């Protein structure tokens, strides 16, 4: 009786599945179960990534509709969309956005430029390290938020302190990463260059700088994130235009919907900056194996 | 470097002609240990010398002094101005395409692309000229390093255990390739290695460095192509292993000690 059962079972399953044993794991590719499992995992990932944020927004909207949250304290997503409509039709958004982007851009430009120059100087030349490294390492421990009142006293309340604040906040990540990138170039690579007669600027241009570039770009990417952080703070200083001005105005008028809309614009800028930096890295470092970080 | 390089008068009357490498009384001291204690080494154009010895005997130190990467503490060192090194690792700049790595030291890189591709062709990698170094296998990267070293037509080629990190099959192919290319380019060659077979297979002369001096200096006169099965190959191998302290007798004694 049992013998018949076994033979029938093995006849039906022998085609692609080995006999089921608890101490054996079937790792062969393209088994039915494996394909379905892999597809299910891919789709679960896609669906959850999309569904969770949507569910949160729906919950947010429902909390207003069902009266769980006070619409004045936490305006629902529909109100925030309406606020965008209002800002757009008043031309507020179109005026504020370029002002803020320009502020962050100019500040970032100067911060990155100084950071790169100082980082290369300190990385390539001993004397540069001796002059700049100690003071910069001291200055970088100061939280830039703390110097805002001082900057207002020194530079007034117009554009100048805003740009200086953004530049000052972004110079350090660029400096540190550039300096460490240059110093971190494999000594063996430099030696190889030297055996082929490379010295001074040729050695720097052909071996050191290209090899240090990924680190410098990481610094610039980090700095562009910091520039938005500094922008938010800078725009609290008596701004008369820009996203910060919209936020302050809305706050005084108790328009929480516009406040949240403004915060979300800052968040969107952060995402855009990150994507742009990743694209730049992709083109500047074609030799790097693609790694998702 | 002195202007008289390559034109030092030879000391013995029988040896004539200029030396490509003329190093005398070379000393290098680490702490209170003289790793090189008055080493003399002369190489002529076309000489292929292998330098054997256990780790820490100063083989690489001597090579680095001849390369100009480290300074000697004493003695005279005269080497050709055109010299190149193949290290144990390929040491390719990851941010430069393969052909740009081959002409790394060139004055006008763009103009030298043809020269780079020709050098790559010699090692069978012309098709990889525009590839990035990360895409190469270990053996391919080391062949690029070899092409780079030969592309400058060096008077002295220094090989610092260039095959040590390769797998056994790739190493066999590299031995053939290096042998053929060196015969064609004919520089003076110093090969630093642990591998006795490799030394016999490739070199015309084998030196063993021990206690800071060149202890053994043997001329290899086995006909090309050399085969491991050749009786003279086996005899020389055994003689060298004895000198290095891992001959049959020494190993039998060591095994007996473990057994007891």
Tally of helical segments of chain A: 11
Uncertain runs of chain B with pLDDT below 50, 5 residues or more?
1-16
What would the average pLDDT of chain B be, to the nearest integer? 86
- Return the CATH class of the domain at 48-70 and 82-220 in chain B: Alpha Beta
Head-to-tail CA distance between termini of chain B: 57 Å
Q: Please report the total strand number of chain B as a whole number.
A: 9
Percent helix of chain B, as a range, is: 25-40%
Structure in a nutshell:
The complex is a heterodimer of chains A (293) and B (260). Chain A has helices at 2-13, 32-65, 77-89, 92-124, 126-139, 148-155, 159-183, 187-195, 200-234, 243-252, 256-284.
Structure commentary:
The complex is a heterodimer of chains A (293) and B (260). Chain A has 293 residues and is mainly alpha-helical. Chain A has helices spanning 2-13, 32-65, 77-89, 92-124, 126-139, 148-155, 159-183, 187-195, 200-234, 243-252, 256-284. In chain A, helix 3 crosses helix 11 (256-284) and helix 10 (243-252) packs antiparallel against helix 11 (256-284). Chain A starts with a helix and ends in a 9-residue tail after the last helix. Chain B has a domain at 48-70 and 82-220: P-loop containing nucleotide triphosphate hydrolases (Rossmann fold, 3-Layer(aba) Sandwich). Chain B has eight helices and nine strands. In chain B, the strands form two sheets. A six-stranded mixed β-sheet of chain B has the order 5-6-7-3-8-9, with helices on both faces. In chain B, strand 8 (205-210) and strand 9 form a beta hairpin. In chain B, helix 4 runs parallel beside helix 5. The longest helix of chain B has 18 residues, at 168-185. Chain B starts with 20 loop residues before the first strand and ends with a helix. Chains A and B meet through helix 8 and helix 9 of A and strand 5 of B.
Features:
heterodimer, A: 293 residues, mainly alpha, 11 helices, 76% helix, 0% strand, flat, B: 260 residues, alpha/beta, Rossmann fold, 6-stranded mixed β-sheet, 3-stranded antiparallel β-sheet, globular, disordered N terminus
């Amino acid at each position: 009786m049992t013998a018949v059962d076994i033979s029938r079972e093995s006849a039906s399953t022998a085609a692609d599945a080995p006999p089921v044993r608890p101490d054996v794991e079937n790792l062969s590719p393209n088994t039915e179960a494996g394909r379905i499992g892999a597809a299910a995992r891919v789709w679960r990932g896609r669906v959850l990534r999309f569904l969770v944020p949507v569910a949160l927004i729906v919950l947010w909207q429902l909390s207003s509709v069902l009266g769980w949250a006070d619409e004045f304290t936490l305006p629902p997503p529909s109100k925030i969309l309406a606020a965008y409509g209002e800002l757009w039709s008043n031309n507020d958004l179109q005026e504020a956005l370029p002002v803020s982007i320009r502020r962050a851009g100019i500040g970032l430009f100067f911060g990155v430029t100084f950071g790169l120059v100082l980082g290369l100087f300190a990385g390539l030349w001993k004397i540069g390290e001796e002059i700049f490294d100690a003071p910069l390492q001291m200055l970088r421990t100061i939280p830039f938020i703390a110097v805002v009142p001082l900057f207002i006293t020194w530079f007034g309340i117009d554009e100048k302190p805003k740009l200086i604040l953004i530049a000052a906040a972004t110079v350090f990540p660029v400096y540190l990463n550039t300096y460490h990138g240059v110093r971190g170039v494999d000594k063996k690579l430099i030696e190889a260059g030297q055996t082929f007669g490379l010295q001074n600027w040729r050695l720097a241009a052909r071996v050191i700088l290209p090899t240090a570039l990924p680190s410098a770009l990481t610094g610039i990417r980090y700095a562009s994130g910091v520039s938005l952080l500094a922008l938010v703070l800078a725009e609290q200083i008596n701004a008369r235009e820009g996203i910060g001005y919209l936020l302050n105005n809305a706050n005084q008028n108790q328009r929480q919907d516009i406040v949240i809309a403004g915060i979300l614009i800052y968040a969107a800028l952060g995402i855009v900056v990150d994507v742009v930096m990743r694209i730049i890295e992709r083109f500047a470092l074609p030799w790097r194996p693609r790694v998702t970080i | 470097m002195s202007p008289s390089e390559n034109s030092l008068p030879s000391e013995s009357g029988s040896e004539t002609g200029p030396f490509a490498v003329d190093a005398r009384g070379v000393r290098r001291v680490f702490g209170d240990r003289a790793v090189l204690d008055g080493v003399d080494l002369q190489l002529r154009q076309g000489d292929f010398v292998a330098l054997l010895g256990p780790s820490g005997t100063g083989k690489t130190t001597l090579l680095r002094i001849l390369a100009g990467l480290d300074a000697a503490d004493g003695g005279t060192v005269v080497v050709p101005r055109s010299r190149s090194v193949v290290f144990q690792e390929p040491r390719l700049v990851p941010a430069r395409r393969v052909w740009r790595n081959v002409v790394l030291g060139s004055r006008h890189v763009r103009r030298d692309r043809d020269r780079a591709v020709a050098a790559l062709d010699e090692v069978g990698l012309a098709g990889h000229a525009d590839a990035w170094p990360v895409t190469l296998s270990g053996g391919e990267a080391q062949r690029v390093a070899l092409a780079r070293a030969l592309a400058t037509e060096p008077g002295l080629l220094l090989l610092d255990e260039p095959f040590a990190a390769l797998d056994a099959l790739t190493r066999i192919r590299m031995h053939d390739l290096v042998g053929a290319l060196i015969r064609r380019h004919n520089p003076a060659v110093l090969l630093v290695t642990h591998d006795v077979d490799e030394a016999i297979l490739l070199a015309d002369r084998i030196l063993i460095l021990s206690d800071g001096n060149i202890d053994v200096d043997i001329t290899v006169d086995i006909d090309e192509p050399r085969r491991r099965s050749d009786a003279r190959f086996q005899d020389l191998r055994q003689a060298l292993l004895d000198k290095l302290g891992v001959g049959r007798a020494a190993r039998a004694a060591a095994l007996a000690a473990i057994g007891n």
